[in-house]
Structure formats: C-alpha cells, structure tokens
Write a structure and sequence with these properties.
Elements (H helix, E strand, L loop, with lengths): L2 H9 L6 H8 L5 H11 L5 E7 L5 H14 L4 E7 L25 E7 L9 H10 L5 E7 L5 H7 L2 E6 L5 H8 L7 E4 L6 H17 L6 E3 L9 H13 L3 H28 L2 H10 L7 H11 L3
Parallel strand pairs: 1-4, 1-5, 2-3, 2-4, 5-6, 6-7
Helix pairs in contact: 1-2, 1-3, 2-5, 3-5, 4-9, 7-8, 10-11, 10-12
Bound molecules: guanosine-5'-triphosphate and magnesium ion.
The site of magnesium ion has 3 residues, from helix 4.
GO molecular function: GTP binding; hydrolase activity
Keywords: Chaperone, GTP-binding, Hydrolase, Nucleotide-binding
InterPro entries: AAA+_ATPase, GTPase/Isobutyryl-CoA_mutase, P-loop_NTPase
Length: 308
Amino acid sequence: MNGSALGARLRAGDRTAAPAALNLLETRTARIEAAALVSAAGDGAGHIVGVTGPPGVGKSTLLSALLREWRSRERSIAVLAVDPSSKRSGGALLGDRARIEHDPADRDVFIRSMAAGERLGGLAPATRAAAQALCTAFDVVVIETVGVGQSETDVAEAADTVVVVVQPGSGDALQFLKAGIMEVPDVLVVTKADLGATARRAEHDLRAALGALGARAVPVLPVSALRPTTGIAELADALDAHRAGLDLAAARTRARRLAALADFVHEHGERGLRSLGGRRAATRWLAEQDPALDVPELLRRLERSVGH
Ligand SMILES: Nc1nc2c(ncn2[C@@H]2O[C@H](COP(=O)(O)OP(=O)(O)OP(=O)(O)O)[C@@H](O)[C@H]2O)c(=O)[nH]1
Ligand SMILES: [Mg+2]
C-alpha cells in the first residue's frame, strides 16, 4: 500500500488504515512514502494530547481510565505509547508497568507502542508524523512519554495539550521549578489521590509553585485511576476546555515547523543546527515561511538554506 493511498484513507476517516499507516511511518527506508502519507492525511481536527511524567507515576493506568471516559463520550482514540525500553535506558525504568486496558474488539480504539527518540523521553520523528496523520481519523490522539526533566519539551512541541502527571510525595513540584519546565504543562495531574494526605500535599505544593511563578492558570487535578476512579471526568473536561481555547490552525502550523526542525536535527545533528545559526535563528526563519507548507517542504527549504 502506498503512502498517499493510506493517508487518503485516514483523511476519509477510515480508522482501519491506522496499523498499516504506522508500519509505513516506522519503516526507515520509506521516508518518501511516509512523507506522502502525512501530506495526504492533511490537517486533522483531532485533539493531540501529550501525557508525560516520570517512570511508574501511573500514566498507563490513568490512560486506561481516560479511555473508558472518552469512549462513554463516544470519542475515537489512538494512543502512541513511546516505549523507553526500546532505547538503551537501563532496567530501572521498567519493573511494575501496567498496560493500557482496552477492549481489543473496539475498532474506535487504536493503541501502538513506538520506539523512543534519541534522548530519554524524546520523540522519534515517526511519532510526530503518526500523531499528525492519525488526528485526521481519530477524535483524540494521545502521545504517552516517560518524562525526565527537559525532555518533556519534545512532547509539548508535538501536542495541542500537555498533561504532566505528578507522583505524590516525590518532590516533583520542586523539581519542576528547578528544571524550569513549569512552562510545559497545560494540565497537571496529581495521581494516586487515593493515597490521601500525601496526595493533597503534592496538590498544594504544585499550586504554590505555580502561584510563585505567576502567569498562566494551569489546572491542578487530583485523580485516582484505580477503580473506583475519582477525578477522571474532571480531567476529560479540563482537556476539552484547554482544547476549546486553542487556535488549532496556528497550533498545527507551529507543530509542522517544529517537526521540520526536529527532522532536520535528526538528519544533520547539532552541527547542522549550528549551520542554521542555532535553534533560535532557525525558529525565527521558520516563522517567516508560508504557514501552509508541509513538513517535507519545510525540511527541504531548511536544507537548501544551508546548502545541504
Ligand atoms: N494507589 C494507586 N496506584 C496507582 C494509581 N495509578 C497507578 N497506580 C500504580 O502505579 C504503578 C505504575 O503504574 P503505570 O500505569 O504502569 O505507570 P506508568 O507511568 O505508565 O509507568 P511507565 O510506563 O513504566 O513509565 C502500578 O502498580 C499501578 O497499579 C492510582 O491512582 N492509585
Ligand atoms: Mg506506562
């Protein structure tokens, strides 16, 4: 099956094209077909939600509960679970991992594990492309990543809305402040709210940390993802509310530009980035390009601008 045919099927809302589309996007030797797929799929109206947080915080369990909530709202959902174990990352990350629970016969839910990017918590170009292509056929596309410090910015670049999941009693609130990543979350979830006082303290610490930073109003939501769940409907509502406030066309243009730059760095490394005059200069240059250009064209223009 060629890329543009698969992209066209997704664009027509044919969710059964998802597995073949992902196979193609993950084939390293099929870059041209993969680009054709993403172009043919076009700009999707689906909501791309990034879910990130440290290993074992409860992301997959949370998604199992969110999937049930979204299905009860008749949304179709694709989940791209970025698997850190596919990189050399040491066994410490694994251990007590829950899988995302779902009904395998439900054709409105598609779950796929994908290889991680170069950095721990980073996104491979195939994951960005997959999110862009799938959001034409699914109402919600989730990208689940293991977040460790700075790497969360990768998922923020690919998603419309970013949920950062925080473990009670972990001191994560202070970590966030130190790492300067309070800019990343659109919604903060304190998971394992069933732990009681520790969870309430984490919620309080996060609100205090956000208050100290001033500026953006980020909801902090306590959730328990173990049955009987609490806070899940509120989380789904908060995601909808964030989405409703977005300029989606602008967000998609921004995502395409960032994806092109990420692809460029993937191909040409930090040296290539320096030849563009650094990340800031490259971002400024991209901001001057036609907003309608797709990722492959932006990448070509970036390469041409430095004579590659
Ligand atoms: N008490 C309690 N335990 C939870 C909750 N959510 C998840 N857990 C437990 O936390 C552990 C890790 O959950 P996962 O959902 O696998 O966490 P994860 O963030 O997806 O983990 P990785 O994918 O390995 O990074 C499991 O033992 C879960 O049962 C919760 O709301 N309350
Ligand atoms: Mg998980």
